[in-house]
């Protein structure tokens, strides 16, 4: 597994809980029967329920909304809230603390493969409704959970060395390319831009003027340094880029969002991570493998601290 694939896996773990709660909310009201004839918005106000949404002459009250959310997601959300309380209590009991440096390091791993930090946060907000604070709190929770899970587990240097030897592709030096691209909607637009590049026009200026990719356009189309097997960029783009020398461009390449012209600004080879960081990551992974399922730990800690769900949930 590459370093970027690790970043993708970490992002999936972080988002699992939030997707459970947020992912299925759109459209649920449309499956419910209309309210009884004669019921008006005024009646809703009389019942102490304010409108959460309006469509045509119909209103969805906050009470209806809350009841539907409770029915569909209430128990799962309560369990997650109890998990967080239990982990906080156990961390305090064990004297475990999570530093800002650890949180930032975790978030940076999750950002790998994105054009920029801003692009990552924008994607998380747009796709999952998760703010920076949400992601920070989730990172802190996962780190606390992992620290509790691995208490008392010792991984010696010999185990770390053995793991690194057995996974050379994961920790060997890798080729990176400083890439830029120009994205357009039509093939003839891309061919026209290629002609202008052949005549000596500046790639960055053309990207700022014509590229449809909002994340890279203002930076002259720059995608930054990317691994040669970057899983976040289209396969056709990466295959073409690997065949180019520094300073060369190629296209048009058909991609999901239109047509791309790719430009290799530079090439370098470097170790996947500083040696000490590699060893720390391997030590953590091996300890987690010995620790067992984190879901089981959450369940055990809820029991240890006497968690109970006393609320009644409507049948679905």
Automatic annotation (TrEMBL):
Keyword Magnesium in record: no
Gene3D superfamilies, A to Z: 3.10.50.40, Porin chaperone SurA, peptide-binding domain
Organism: Paenibacillus medicaginis
The keyword Transferase is annotated on this UniProt entry: no
Matches recorded under InterPro entries: PPIase_dom_sf (IPR046357), PPIase_PpiC (IPR000297), PPIase_PpiC_CS (IPR023058), PrsA_foldase (IPR050245), Trigger_fact/SurA_dom_sf (IPR027304)
Highest taxon in the source lineage: Bacteria
PROSITE patterns in alphabetical order: PPIC_PPIASE_1, PPIC_PPIASE_2
Protein name as catalogued: peptidylprolyl isomerase
Catalytic activity: [protein]-peptidylproline (omega=180) = [protein]-peptidylproline (omega=0)
Sequence ranges assigned to domain PpiC in this UniProt record: 174-266
A Pfam family that the UniProt record links to this protein: Rotamase
UniProt KW keywords: Isomerase, Membrane, Rotamase, Signal, Transmembrane, Transmembrane helix
Lineage: Bacteria, Bacillati, Bacillota, Bacilli, Bacillales
PANTHER family given in the database record: FOLDASE PROTEIN PRSA, PEPTIDYLPROLYL ISOMERASE
